[in-house]
Each structure stands twice: as C-alpha cells, then as structure tokens.
Amino acid sequence: MAQADDDQVPSAQGRDAEQRAAPRFTLLIRAAKLIVDGESEFLCVIRDASASGLKIRLFNALPAHRELAIEMSNGDRYPVEQIWSEGEYAGFRFVDDVDIERLLDESHGTFPKRQVRLRIHLDAILHSGGEAVRVSFLDISQQGACIESDKWLLMNELVRLETGVMQPIYAKVRWRSHPRYGVLFEQTFKLDELAHLTASLQPSDHPDAARGGREGSGGESFGGERFGRR
C-alpha cells in the first residue's frame, strides 16, 4: 500500500520547518478532502504522509482561512496547518499527534472503505415517472450522491437529474430515508472533474475556489482512475 520514502519534501527556501524527521510514506493516490473553517470542502490527493505532516496535491487554490482539517474517506479528521505551497502541491503539519498507521489504514472508522463525499449547495430538477420536481444535493462522490426530495422515489428507480452546471445525470435509487435518498450514477466522475465541480459549489463566503465541472474539464485525469464503490 505504501513504501518508505525520504525524498518527497522539496528543500527550497522557506520549507525548512516542514522537513520531517518522521518516516514518510509515498502514496500513489489517496483521495481525501480539505475542510476550510469547518464548512467548505475541497477534494485533494495525499501524495506522502508522516506522523508530523502531509504533502497534498490540490485541484483548486485554497481560499483565505482560519482553520484547516484533512478528512479521510472513512470520516477520520485531523486538524492541520499549511506550511508551504508550490503550484498544485502544498505541505501541511498536523496540529496534534497522529497515529500514521491508523491514518493510512482506512478499513476502520465510521465509514470504512467509503468514497470521499463532499457537501455541496446545489439545486436540481429530478425527472421521475413523468414528473419533474425540485430536489437538493446534500453531498456527492465520484459514483453517487445524497439528495433531498419531497417526491417519494422507488428503490432502484432510474431518475434524471438536471442541474444547469453539468450535463444531465442518470442515476438509480439505492437507499432511501424519505425525504433523503442515495443515488448511484450511471456514469461516474473522474477525480479532477469532481474536484473542480464541487469547489464551485461551496459556501459563497469562500469565493476563491476555481470553477469547473464535467463539461469541458481539462484537468489531470489520473488515467481515469475511479476510486472503489460508493
């Protein structure tokens, strides 16, 4: 899963404080999310980690902030401080002591082996059974979403979601707890597509995030890698 590495943190001026004595682990790709001031959420990729800090690949410029935390796909959250930034990469230091083995092992926690979900603010029109009703997205991942709908939906029902910020989404209902429903997309998002889309759908007091979406996305695709099942 990971291999020890001692050459991941650049030695440029201004990064001396980020040079970590603890053993580092190079991760090919580990999706996570950065939480800004407890509310805005930005998809990212952890590229190496140690008990003292992380090197992260960002898809969007982070807005001005007071607090940062990194949250793994299993729900474990760790407060961090940004130490350096260069292009699409940034270095972060853990605020508290961290069990690095636990951080790297996502088979435990509240949501073991689950895809990263990002909270968003997005309304949509849902087409179901000849009706068109307004719904709201509560969160989204590469392969599905949680929506809120006043209309009762059937299990395994195929629906169409139109948002105005991306192409129509076809999805099947996989769970329900009315008025909340979990849907599984027929066509999944690439990681960079989801990152650009969700950055543009964060609270308006963090307007600095780059906008983007499934249409016309030109970011790095990581070979079209799609992370597990929702």
UniProtKB/TrEMBL annotation:
Protein origin, superkingdom: Bacteria
InterPro entries associated with the record: PilZ_domain (IPR009875)
Compositional bias ranges of the Basic and acidic residues kind: 205-214
Domain PilZ span(s) in chain numbering: 18-100, 114-198
Annotated segments matching region Disordered: 202-230
One function term, GO molecular function aspect: cyclic-di-GMP binding
Pfam families in the cross-refs: PilZ
UniProt name for this protein: PilZ domain-containing protein
